[in-house]
Amino acid sequence: MHQYDLYGIGAALLDTEIEVSDDDLQSLGVDKGVMTLVDDHRQHQLVSALSDHLVTAKRACGGSGANTVIAASYFGLSTFYSCKVAADENGDFYRADLADAGVAYPGTLSEAEPGVTGKCLVLITPDAERSMNTFLGISAGLSTAELDIEALSASRWAYIEGYLVSSPTGKAAAIELRQAAERAGVKTSLSLSDPAMVHLFHDGLREMIGDGVDLLFCNRDEALGFSGTDSIAAAAEGLKAHCRSFAITLGAEGALLWDGEREYRVAAPKVHAIDTNGAGDMFAGAFLYGINRGMSFEEAGELACRAAGQVVSQYGPRLRPDQHGELLTAEVEARDAE
Ligand SMILES: Nc1ncnc2c1ncn2[C@@H]1O[C@H](COP(=O)(O)OP(=O)(O)OP(=O)(O)O)[C@@H](O)[C@H]1O
Ligand SMILES: O=C(O)C(=O)C[C@H](O)[C@H](O)CO
Fold first, then answer.
1. Ligand nearest to the CA of residue 62, numbered in listed order
2. How far, in Å, from the CA of 63 to the mean position of ligand 2?
3. Measured distance CA(15)–CA(131) in Å, rounded
4. Which residue in 306, 277, 281 sits closest to 189, CA to CA?
5. For residues 279 and 304, what is the distance between their CA atoms, to the nearest angstrom?
6. How far apart are the CA of 276 and the centre of ligand 1, in A?
7. How far is the CA of 257 from the centre of ligand 1 (A)?
8. Distance 279 CA to ligand 1 centre (A)
């Protein structure tokens, strides 16, 4: 009997989203389409330069891994999340937001230390692309101290955010989590997170993956960068050496899935995309829900594409709680109609 369906780990970040033009990105010197680590000062500088463009006044706890685990929780999985916040207002907010979403967390999250909770400034261009400037704050010190091996051992699946590779202690925590999961017979999954992480920390990601995870998530650029090729077919072959199954997301073209035996292409619904922040995170959350509930890769991929299609049609990396239930109802109706 498993206490949790999904145990995740990642950086705890509060998101602020701002709509900008490509000219804004250029004049502010922001790299488009990737996550760049910045200090507090640079983040403030960007926010004040763009304060009249603000699109999300509402704070929500983000960070890629949290977006995934919260989505999985709203779909109906029992979830646990390891992360680190500071003893500040954002830290209190983050803890409350996780609890509201029904996500359990380790005791260490309640013993927050002095410092600053991490923040992510997400700049959205008219082509719906997201360019992120992240100040990790106290999340840079996320470490094995935030792991709860008992909770992990009582879980069905583990999910590791690849962004952790940028912090030496975060990477060590990710590796220990994977190894503990392997010892306890918990299935392992990991997201390569961002093309910049693949480019800057390729070897670190290899260490985090070890002899291979059960399920690897990545997008097109991450797959190509990780495999050092410019063809998706070749990248897919290359990835098979590092995992027992994968889901490669392909933006508006949906996803390429491999369940260890067969490959499947799943189409994305036609939507008007305005903000792709968190699209990959939602895909992973919905997909993990699906396979936890016994769906085939193809069925889980269809649900994940529908859910991610909804996320890119609205601002912010998360859906409202009720939207998860609506997606599941639509899923059942679509299957009944087949
Ligand atoms: N324009 C779009 N139209 C429909 N669905 C989309 C679109 N863009 C993304 N999606 C959905 O989101 C999923 C993930 O998108 P993508 O491959 O761009 O991942 P990503 O780059 O990791 O996203 P992000 O890093 O911004 O979270 C896709 O598989 C698809 O289901
Ligand atoms: O868009 C992505 O790839 C993300 O991972 C989303 C961000 O990490 C997250 O919302 C930032 O807090």
1. 2
2. 5
3. 12
4. 281
5. 10
6. 6
7. 14
8. 5
pTM of the predicted protein model: 0.95
Q: Is the CB–ligand 2 distance for residue 280 below 6 Å?
A: yes
Q: Cα dist. 37→128, 171, 190 in Å?
A: 21, 16, 20
Domain boundaries, the chain: 4-10+64-92+100-107+144-337
Tokens in use for 316?
A: 């912010």
What is the C-alpha separation between 130 and 15, in angstroms, rounded? 12
Residue 281, ligand 1, Cβ within 6 A: yes
* Nearest ligand to the CA atom of 249: 1
Per-residue pLDDT tens digits for 248-305 = 999 999 999 999 999 999 999 999 999 999 999 999 999 999 999 999 999 999 999 9
Determine the residue type at 196.
A
Does the beta carbon of 130 sit less than 6 angstroms from any atom of ligand 2? yes
> 54 - beta bridge partners?
18
Residue 228 tokens read as: 């050092």
State CA 235 to chain mean position distance: 21
ipTM of model over 0.85: yes
**In the CATH hierarchy, which fold is given to the domain comprising 4-10+64-92+100-107+144-337?**
UDP-N-acetylmuramoyl-L-alanine:D-glutamate ligase (3.40.1190)
Dihedral sign (CA 321, 326, 329, 334): negative
Tens of pLDDT, residues 185-231: 999 999 999 999 999 999 999 999 999 999 999 999 999 999 999 99
